[in-house]
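Handout, section B. The chain below has 243 residues.
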Amino acid sequence: MDIAFGVFIILLGVAGCILAFKYKPASAVVNRDNNSSQSIFDEIPSSNRKEQLKRASSGQTVTLIGESEKAIQASITLYEMFQRQPHAPWSRTGLVSKVLALAGGIFIFKIPSQEAGKPVWFKGREISSSGLGKFYKGSSDSAGPAKKFHQNDQTKPVPYSLPKNLTPGVTWEVVDIGTFDADVEGETDNIISGDRLYFVTSKEQNGDNWLIYMDARKGEAKGSGGLFLLEPFEPSVEVSDLM
């Protein structure tokens, strides 16, 4: 009887294992099909979504809250550069910014919000791509807003209005200027790998919008650069999916 009872217990255990495997929840099964898409946000806390978006690459797709899925056309890394004196070699400061060019003409920026400020996220669209370099720089007789900001050692915001009726009735303030070298994965006409870009960051004086101007100068850049009208963007709550 003891041997028979032992055999019965072993058979009962085997049957239990078979049933458990058969009715295992689908969520617990690992999908190893390389052709399938799996959200990298599935089990990632929202606080880490910024890090995932920083590492997003061309070919992935992003779903923004309230919008349809957008393909990432280009993932752009921007290295801030500096010169110790005019005509000296350029060197990296160690500050790295990020741009994602999405289908539909949407751009996501992670860039400092002011001189020596912490990087913040913005989302928006290009509103112009040419003819503004001279405006921001100005001339020897009349300094433009970016040059004025440089002349005050980048310590005091410089108010200005855009020409060409680009943002009628809006007063902007220059809050940061600098130089980037670009490394691009994917394709966008605005920025191409190897470009050196001179940027101007501005904030709406009595509002929440921002401007980022990317000056792509001949001989230093092959992309078109552009002027981007942006708004604050919080990936941890405004990105629902990244695949």
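Note. Residues 7-12, 14-44 have pLDDT under 50 and may be disordered. Compare this with the example in section A.
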